[in-house]
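Re: that chain you flagged

S.,

Sorry for the slow reply, it's been a week of failed gels. I finally had a moment to sit down with the sequence you sent. For the record, here it is as I used it:
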Amino acid sequence: MRPGAPRRYYPSRLPCLNSATVGINNKFNQVTALNKKYRCDPRENPATPPLHWEYTMKNKNARRGEIKRKTKETDITLCLVLDGTGRTQCTTGVPFMDHMLTLFAVHGFFDLEARATGDTEVDAHHTVEDLGICLGQTLKQALGDFAGIRRYGFCSLPMDETLVRVTLDCSNRPFLHYGIPFLEQKVGDFDTQLAKEFLRAFSLHGGLTLHVEMAHGENTHHILEAVFKALGRALDQAVTIDPRAVGPVSSKGSL
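Prediction finished late last night. Pasting the structure tokens below so you have them in one place:
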């Protein structure tokens, strides 16, 4: 065939279905099935590639948790991958929480998908609190018996005039100390008191001892951003696998 001439396909030109081709087709079918499972068909939203299939194909041992929680007030589906790269898809009906969850995942290098609907016509309280519940439950699923992790994490994080510290222990003994002074009531449409409700639910259902403190700060948006960024970074430290650890890091042998 001369260069530039159009290709003509005849039956005799059909590709041979050798083992490599079959393998590619099998992988494509697996990816398609995963995309359907997680409702992440790239044809529906080409700008947002699916989060999960790439991990499942490359690292079947990635630590992950998934939950679907439906009540009379909210309907939430959430998936958390600890061994991630910071990819997120958050559509919770509360835009400020989408922003905070994205910061948490990006700075913790977690993959996070959160989809929620709720009675936001009342206010965002139920949705935000239930998101904390679901995130905590998926964290516990992903950690299992807490074996092999470093367990403790700390981050002191500046955001312009603000300095926030987050210290946590994956202890399976839930506790929250929230040392953030009273903030402005609203950031946009978001009630800032809901940040504490989210963290309380997250620590309770994730089995975390969590201390959140502000050294200094003025801008409410900066303060809350710093809290969620520091939370992601501290949790990333805590859930990192320590190759020296055999079982949970505890003198009791369990958490």
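What I noticed first: The domain at 52-239 is CATH 3.30.230.40 (Ribosomal Protein S5; domain 2).

Talk soon,
D.
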